[in-house]
Amino acid sequence: MDIDGVEESSRQVQVRFVTKLKPPYKAPSTTLAIPTNITRLRLSDIVNNILEAGFDDWQYQPFDFLIDGKFLRISLEDFLVAKGISAERVIEIEYVKVVAPRREDISLHDDWVSAVDGSHDGYILTGCYDGLGRIWKDAGICTHVLEGHTGPITSVRVIKLKVESAFNLVATASKDRSLRLWKIDAGELAQPKKTRAFKILKGHNAAVQSIASQPSGEMLCSGSWDCAINLWRANGSDAGGDIVSVKRKKSRGDEEPQSEEEAVSTLVGHTQCVSSLVWPQHETIYSASWDHSIRRWDVETGKDSLKMFCGKAINCLDIGGESSALIAAGGSDPIIRIWDPRKPGKYDPIFQLSGHNSWISSCKWHNKSWFHLVSASYDGKVMIWDLRAAFPLHVIESHKNKVLCADWWKDDSVISGGVDSKLCISSGISVE
């Protein structure tokens, strides 16, 4: 059948629209004739017209399109020629919702926002150069202020406990060479609650740059400018490092005492700052460093079982994508590189994503998608990527200066912090 309202062309092609979306976004599986000079914007109009015919209260929804697993960003005719696809067969065109935020909100801090963690759906954890951590229930709603560090906070982490607890556990790291652990109650608060750490972890000889937690929540690891990776016990003190009790302050009423604890063990091998850490499996830690290397560590033996060198100082690292096995990293150039360590032989990147024009400060996989990740850069931009496209699907330009950190939140939002002292929440993003 032909589509009404589509301009005539000297050449047409038979297509069928398909989707993994559920009703009301699922169009009938009908073969249509459309002109080959059509672009994705006009394709989106056609799909919306089809869907509107089946639903009286339909509201316009922008779509993106894929052919043979690749995004369409040029005319259909140019795409078919570039990919060597015959126009004589029926072309299956998959449509997905456009990946773009529908709303952007800002929460101001008193200094640079250097770290964010959106892994808990109920709140956002931020770290700031004023030495304070903060818990945000939503944009503009700060419920806890974490006091105690004497230097800028460089990394933050929500620790996911396997057992039910009346509190949430979070960790912060700082240029003051320490880590601190905090218990956060989940109750409603009329104003921000000032909270102090229940445990201080000391053992690094230089600023702590990165932290990660074991999936079970039992252990933490930290990377520092002293080139070492320290392992710590997150809660419980029946084994491991030495513990020193610190007297509670009377002015704090009935708060529990603080304790200071030393590292359980240390992983040695990097020769420059350990800039980023990921602990994806119980016995496996990944680390990135300014010494240009990415390493995979066996926690039990303390040895590195994988070394990859990329020729650039690395600022950020994450594990995700296909089967949660791909390594994404960025550093002292504008390129995000992705490796598959399961492939034998030489470790060349399987993807190199170009779009930023300055150093990459952060990259994070979406935890429910094999294809999507978000990146942040000193160019002031946050970009959302899909591995099926050679370009960013969307560019967020809410920041006015360097962006220092970014993460996903609640599966449909991107959070970011930067030199402009802003926490930006870009929400309403559809990731299918």
TrEMBL record:
GO MF entries: ribonucleoprotein complex binding
Database matches in Gene3D superfamilies: YVTN repeat-like/Quinoprotein amine dehydrogenase
Start and end residues of each NLE domain: 13-80
UniProt keyword Nucleus, yes or no: yes
Any one GO biological process: maturation of LSU-rRNA from tricistronic rRNA transcript (SSU-rRNA, 5.8S rRNA, LSU-rRNA)
Stored InterPro entries: NLE (IPR012972), WD40/YVTN_repeat-like_dom_sf (IPR015943), WD40_PAC1 (IPR020472), WD40_repeat_CS (IPR019775), WD40_repeat_dom_sf (IPR036322), WD40_rpt (IPR001680), WDR12/Ytm1 (IPR028599)
Aminoacyl-tRNA synthetase is among the record's keywords: no
Pfam families on file: NLE, WD40
Keywords per UniProt: Nucleus, Repeat, Ribosome biogenesis, rRNA processing, WD repeat
WD repeats: 146-192, 201-232, 267-307, 353-395
Cellular component terms per the entry's GO annotation: nucleolus; nucleoplasm; preribosome, large subunit precursor
Main localization of the protein described in the UniProt heading: nucleus
PROSITE patterns: WD_REPEATS_1 (PS00678), WD_REPEATS_2 (PS50082), WD_REPEATS_REGION (PS50294)
Subcellular location(s) of the protein: Nucleus, Nucleolus; Nucleus, Nucleoplasm
Function, in words: Required for maturation of ribosomal RNAs and formation of the large ribosomal subunit.
UniProt record similarity statement: Belongs to the WD repeat WDR12/YTM1 family.
PANTHER family: RIBOSOME BIOGENESIS PROTEIN WDR12, WD40 REPEAT PROTEIN 12, 37
Protein name: Ribosome biogenesis protein WDR12 homolog
Organism: Olea europaea subsp. europaea
